[in-house]
Amino acid sequence: MPYLPKFSVTLTISSNLMKIQDSATLISQLPLPTHILRDLKHDSMVETVIYSTKIEGNFLNEDRKRAVMFKQSRIRDEQEIYNLCKALEFLDKCETRRLQVTEELIKKLHAIIKVISSGRRPTLSLYRTEQNVVKGSGKIVYLPPEPQDVPMLMEDMVAWLGAPETLIMPAPIKAGIFMYQFVTIHPYMDGNGRTARALATYILRLAGLGLNGLFVLEKFYDRNLRGYYDNLQMGLHHNYYFGRNEADITPWLEFFISGLAEVFQDAATIVRAKSAEFTRVEPELLRTLDIEQRMVFAQMAFRRDHLTPSDLQKLTGYADRTVRDKIRQWIGQGFLVPSDPNAQRVRAVKMAPKFQELAKEVGQDPDAFKYLLS
Hints:
By secondary structure, this protein is mainly α. The chain has helices at 11-29, 34-55, 62-68, 76-96, 103-113, 150-162, 164-167, 171-185, 192-206, 217-223, 225-233, 250-279, 284-287, 291-302, 309-316, 320-332, 353-363, 366-369; strands spanning 134-136, 139-142, 336-338, 349-351. The protein has two domains: 11-276, Fic-like fold (Orthogonal Bundle); 284-373, Winged helix-like DNA-binding domain superfamily/Winged helix DNA-binding domain (Arc Repressor Mutant, subunit A), CATH 1.10.10.10. The strands form two sheets. It has a two-stranded antiparallel sheet with strand order 1-2. A two-stranded antiparallel sheet has the order 3-4. The radius of gyration is 24 Å and the shape is elongated.
């Protein structure tokens, strides 16, 4: 039977989806130079490793975790930290190549995450061949599917993720369902939580909701650890086959998406503060430009006195029609003017006079404004 998750889009989910999109839009529009974004992304990656391993019971203190992130160790908890760092680097490379989530990618990712005591690390992790049990306080909390059912369940889950009806689903809902089903199947003896959370974030990134790597979903779980486990359990029977395999997962989705909204808003607050701190020393007219306009301004202030629609396509990555819409919008806003005001069709643009004056001002101290080109 194909995997068909049961859920409803509640008012709470809809409200939080809007908060997520609003935060993503804000972050995409606020100007920040590359080196600041790079530092923020590094900080977020470090926090992801710290909190994700803490959730799984790694109680090395934060200072120790930071110290061992980029070096291998024979101590299990330290190696766990290093492995998760390498796994996140692997997903960075996957995102650059726009690789979709497949069983092969999942197995490669888990092979990096898994801590092995000896022998050669495999390229792919095989699904478990034993029955595993999740315990808490000495009692069985969850009894996952039997090992012989795991391959089919994983195949069905990945097929659902790539199905046409799933592709049009809001990415936060898709990521939340995937994460729930992954930890429900529990395809490995160890590392399921770390792998599931990393893949849920990766699904968001593929959909354009990566926020440049600036959000840390694990931070929400750390603040709400009891809620995290309770919402994964949803009061269901501990045995997978006693209703969990066909449960309505709306309560989990409400929790997952509310957490995502919270950390997206946290990220937006940080970026807003950094952007304000950075831009307040800029000339007032420069502060009126959004990120796209800044790219155009930098090109014409430092490199060329005019740009064609083709140049703007290469600069922004937009299609020809979108670029021409942008040109009309920017001309209307007084940012650009046609290079030839008498031409029937705009074949090239230059900056409006007041921005040409701003470019001269910027050009008098190029080192102070070279970040605009980053």
